Task: structure prediction
Amino acid sequence: MRIVFPLYPNFTALDAIGPYEVLSRLPGAEAVFAAVEPGPVTTDTGALTVLAETALADITECDVVVVPGGPGCVAAGNDAAYTGWLAAVHPKTRWTASVCSGSMLLGAAGILQGLPATSHWAVTELLPVYGAAPTARRTVFTGKVVTAAGVASGIDMALALAAELTDRETAESIQLFIEYDPQPPFDTGSPAKAPAPMVERVRQQILSEV
Result:
């Protein structure tokens, strides 16, 4: 089972690494980090680099694609080599997924047309630009297209996807293995819970980066 994480400069690390920690543990999984140009790809903090060992052009088909989000999604969405690859490989996948603003890259590739989808709460309102119907749900499965909300939701999405690819017991075993048992010290993980001034401040910060 080949699972491809198509990276681009300034992606958000957890968007890719969270799902990787889950999906790479599936029986028979081959997790591949790829990019338009193979080599080191730096995340949005500028302090972490992930090695993309394979060029996207060298991957003509795979079972699963997981597209991360991040400030670099705007540039990647304007890169015909990146979006063209997504559009070409999507018909051959079993599942095509995104995390956070990675949904905008699916949209730029024409994959979300007419579908419900989610993204990071600060950019969900941009989804109609790509013909998608925005929803505030944390994970959205529509046919073989899966979109997850903000950064940490990628782990939830990957566990649900793991169950679809194998079975519930396997997914639950992976959850136990990585000890994914969220008990956050604060309750500000969604705009519905955080103070309004904080929501607006974070929204402006994100929009200034995207």
About this structure: Residues 196-209 form the longest helix (14 residues).
